[in-house]
Specification:
Elements (H helix, E strand, L loop, with lengths): L15 H11 L8 E3 L1 H7 L2 E6 L9 H11 L2 H6 L1 E4 L3 H13 L3 E6 L4 H9 L3 E5 L4 H12 L2 E2 L6 H17 L6 E5 L4 H13 L4 E7 L4 H8 L22 H10 L2 E5 L1 H15 L9 H7 L10 E6 L6 H8 L1
Parallel strand pairs: 2-10, 3-4, 3-6, 4-5, 7-8, 7-10, 8-9
Antiparallel strand pairs: 1-2
Amino acid sequence: MGNISEGSSPLETVTIDDVRRAHAAIHGLVHHTPLFTSATLSAMTGTRLTLKAESLQKTGSFKVRGTIFAAKSLSPEERKRGLIAITAGNHGAALAYGAGLAGTPATIVMPAGAVQAKIAAVRGYGGEVVLVDPSHLIESMEEIQRKQDSIYVNPIGSLWMIAGAGTAALEILDDIAEVPELVVVPVGGGGLIAGIATTIKALSPSTRVVGVEPETADVVHQSLAAGKPVRIDYPTSIADGLNTPFAAPLSFELIQRCVDEMVTVSDAEVVCAMRLILERMKLVVEPAGAAAVAALLAGKVPDAGGRRVVALLSGGNVDLRRLQQILA
């Protein structure tokens, strides 16, 4: 993907200063999302568990933190060119929303067969949706980008998105009564955990950061084993927000440096977590958003017992009919 232009976003690394810059840029434009505790889920996971509800964020996921930062970082000339992204859903809605705030157009390239509620959300926020063959997502997006000369906002690998994601960790550390010993994060391509881990390790180095991937969409696991970012064919987890076919170089470098452990969960474990979060917390999360809790419930996070743990609920965008099917 070397020919994809990301405008003025530098790609060398992301630091706590970048996260703080993102935080200042998006202040007042995103929700400072709440922390919730549950005695029941704490008992079931054997931890002192707190949930960070990014499922209640504007557009329904953490993604808007980075997309608003990206849109507000554009020069006047770049705003005229517009933004473009490739996504299964949440990033598209967030980018359309952020672009609307900046008065710039957004084109969202999505796989044919994407969740209808997520397609509708992108359009509802003013984005132009282009549905393409899932096997040619990148190539299709590159062709459209060349024609439009638009600015690509990589959902998992741009400074904007990683630093924006890190602002959620700033909120956790500001709000929580005691510094967490462990933070557990859902992982697709790695942008969210890269931002969270960069922030946590800068401000609380002793806090462990663990990422959770679906067993059938484990591109970061495979990249770590290979020692470099790799692509996988047709990730197929029920957690569609984590079905990312590639890892991005910038996110991967930060994961190697700042993330302590990666684990995987099954679709059945994700569904169990969704049901429990709904029943016990009265919070609706999408499958991707339940992955961190799923790993804790399944006992897959090493050395979590008795610890002060924060689990990130990364998104809540799930079609009601699909939710009924999943939980039936």
